[in-house]
């Protein structure tokens, strides 16, 4: 009788206690769909000001993107050679640069009834990829590489028409680090952010003059 109870305990543990952590949370597609649907909903909302749209999208992106993992993969070997202070500064600047870039694109964006279709998903342990198609004037394939952090699938790379965001930045940043060192890269990022900030202020000033 005791042996039966012992075997039953092992069976119950095997079924309920020894669970792959990726199986204990909603799928990457299910989680990402919530965020993307909310972003589309905000972009569609004509009652919101442009600044309100940008602020809401920014919050959702920062909640769903793993900028540390993205930074690590963007820098590759240079991440391992950087000091903790340099890493922290890079994450801060890189995330700011990405934010400023997509804020400018959203300001110039006109919603054309685009929609997102979810066409595939692959999961291997705590890594995964969600494949989508943005249906607009032409179909644009967009894939999101994600990793499980706690109970959240967070995005660490975006692939648009087979071009990886991480790989794209890595190739240019590697060249800068090779020629100017890591601090040289940080300086370049600071300069770029200042340029984007100046362009943003100029665009706002122009819009005010035109009464937009």
Topology, please?
Elements (H helix, E strand, L loop, with lengths): L1 H16 L10 H17 L5 H15 L2 H9 L1 H5 L2 H24 L7 E10 L2 E9 L3 E11 L2 E9 L2 E2 H45 L3
Antiparallel strand pairs: 1-2, 2-3, 3-4, 4-5
Helix pairs in contact: 2-3, 4-6, 4-7, 6-7
Describe this structure in words.
The radius of gyration is 22 Å and the shape is globular. It contains 7 helices and 5 strands; from the N terminus they run H-H-H-H-H-H-E-E-E-E-E-H. It has one domain (21-201): Roll (Nuclear Transport Factor 2, Chain: A). The chain has a 5-stranded antiparallel β-sheet with strand order 1-2-3-4-5. The chain is α+β, with helices and mostly antiparallel strands and 212 residues long. The longest helix is centred in the C-terminal third of the chain and has 45 residues, at 165-209.
CATH topology label: Nuclear Transport Factor 2, Chain: A
What profile does the largest beta sheet have? 5 strands, antiparallel
CATH superfamily: Tgt2/MlaC
Top CATH class: Alpha Beta
The total number of structural domains is 1
CATH architectural category:
Roll
Nearest-angstrom radius of gyration? 22 Å
| Number of DSSP strand runs | 5
Give the helix level as a range of percent. Answer: 55-70%
State the low-pLDDT regions, or none.
Answer: 1-19
Number of helices: 7
Average pLDDT value? Answer: 84
Helix-strand makeup class: alpha+beta
Distance between the termini: 80 Å
Q: Spell out the helices and strands N to C.
A: HHHHHHEEEEEH
Q: List the strand order in the largest sheet.
A: 1-2-3-4-5
